[in-house]
Design brief:
The protein is about 35% helix and about 20% strand. It is α/β, with parallel strands linked by helices. Strands 3-2-1-4-5-7-6 form a seven-stranded mixed β-sheet. α2 (about 55-65) packs antiparallel against α5 (about 170-175). It is globular.
Length: about 220
Amino acid sequence: MADILVLAPHADDEVIGCGGMMARRTAEGDRVHVAVFGVGGIQHRHLEHEATAVARLDEFKRATEILGVAETTVLFEGMDMRLDTIPQVEIVSKIDDLLESKYDEVYFPYSSFNHDHQTVFDAVFSALRMKGGDQAPLLSALYEYPEVGWNPTEIRGGKMYVDISDQLEQKMRALSAYESQMRSHPHPRSPESVRLFAQMRGVEAGFAAAELFYLQKMVIPA
């Protein structure tokens, strides 16, 4: 059994980026822990009213339960879209504390135009620094999201496709829990776009649906 840590800037990023992988791994008996950095009340342009912190936390709970996630953590409640106002040393320290549990695999999002995603990317890379001994996870990889086409920097890393053909509908059910975050098609974060994106990655790898990860480090121990 593997212990897996998924780090998400906001509640919904984890489902969009690797909901299928999480559903597959929990079904296979692995233990998944999802840690979200910023959850709080926020009013997006597509919402008539603010999505409260309580509502966002409830969505997060329902989505991760659908995927079979064993543990969830919110690191900075109320800091949705404000993570860049927190000193990086505080964010890295929080991640260091999580990594004390010695996870086998860690997944986090690539840097993007979203400043919260940039902040999380930089902090996680710092936290995954070489520390000696056996503390480092054996595998660390970036997950993606449909806005991959609007990215200011090249995404580096070896490509790793995960077949989620049998988990796609479960991923979509988990995504539907995030009622306040879903947009209308053809917005990249609409349910239709997320499904099409998984099917596109599936075509690339020879499956009905897949998720793509960018390997940053993989260690095969003796």
